[in-house]
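Entry type: protein chain
Record version: 2
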Amino acid sequence: MSRLVDIAAELGTTDSETSSPGSSSPVTVPLAPPDEVTIARANALKDEGNKFLTVAKYSLAALKYSEAIALYPNAIYYSNRAQALIKLEAYGEAISDANEAIKLDPKYIKAYYRRASANYALGKLKAALKDFKSVTSIVPKDPDAAAKVKLCEKILREDAFQRAIEMDAPIESTVDYASIAVEESYHGPRLEVDAPVTPEFVQDVLDHFRAEKILHRKYVMMLLLRAIDMFKRLPPLLRIALPRDSANAVDGTLTVCGDTHGQYYDLLNIFELGGMPSEKNVFLFNGDYVDRGSFSFETVFALVLLKLSAPSSLHMLRGNHETKNMNKIYGFEGEVKHKYDNEVMKLFTKLFQSLPLAAVLENKVFVVHGGLSTNGNVGPEDGPNALTSVSLGEIEALDRFREPPEAGLMSDLLWSDPQPQRGRAPSKRGLGFSFGPDYTEAFLRRNNLQLVIRSHEVRDEGYEEEHGGKVITVFSAPNYCDQMGNKGAYIRFGADDMTPSFTKFVAAPHPNVPPMRYAGNMFSL
């Protein structure tokens, strides 16, 4: 969404005409009813937006709908823009647009669909269910709305059941993988119960996955339990140093990767370009390993294996998609249940709850999936009029072994985004906040750091330097969802001053399996 301002400038749109194609009141609304010529111009802009929407140019579609709304605000245009914003994952702004559409035409059912879809994407199932029921009250025989009512009710029932049984013994204490027999017909990699995870075993599994074959359930459960035990011993905030020799001179590299989102063949390409993790070639993956891409199991499990094989050579942080709601909606839960079962999915949930939330590299660079919190305690050195800024100590004190709440520090770390203007604003996503360069400066100053690296958003070139170079967004899933056309990137450090270098790459060939294969059909409207 941040690049929409640049697009607007290229098309000659002024700040007074649109500050963001997704905000609920960014456009100039005419005081008098438009004439037929103006309506025709608005409809032509809407048609242009529709064409952009069909070819996955969602930012341009949202911009065209904004220009149409400026000429002739109506429920159709707002609802269409809401659909583009949903595709851009700007769910909060999509809900605002749907609200405006419903205000203009309370019987326009697509607006209810859009608002329901955005709430569903945020895991707000009760709100989504209410809107789908509104559609069925307006159009009682709408089969799609009826199906989505049943889907929301089914998920809510399952959630209630899961919460009830979670009061029992934790899943890791009930799994008996030792009693699971490995059939003679299984021809994949094997590992004895107490055997270490060797580099050779890891490579065998990576090759097995590359051939679209499944690792036996016994080994999956055994290794997930090992990983849970390893991660839960780590602090919420990792401290990671560059590889050094006996004289304390830097003699290796540290690479930071962003979202991979189930794009397993692109993950393999990262290692082909940057080398496999080792003591001298350390990797930090910054969350969002799963969902959307249909090889999410292979992606996250490959990283887990590499972590088990060489714990100091690869590190993993939690992203907003390492959560129950996101996994249920965006495909990972469906994928795991298709390839394995619900018991394996429960182990992944426990694993995700055990992942650290942030890292500090060489006491200079802060890495987090989403962004900075705009709440916090003001340090005495900042003065009475200083911005509030979270300290590293507050992050270290977090209880991370849970699902993130809708608000607060943990939510902000996973969900927030930078914005170009100073100050803060409600996030376009509907969770977290947008933080300006002044908040970045305050955080870095308070914690004596020089740079923030975060992920969480697609960037055309795979990365983008923001806030005067003090924030870098890195995204490592090229051609996201097989349709965005973006490059992937990773960031590499190899010197004491922690100057970043960037490697960009394009999407690798992969089997003909579409993204979102295991997700529901909620976003097709």
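Comment: The two ends are 21 Å apart (CA to CA).
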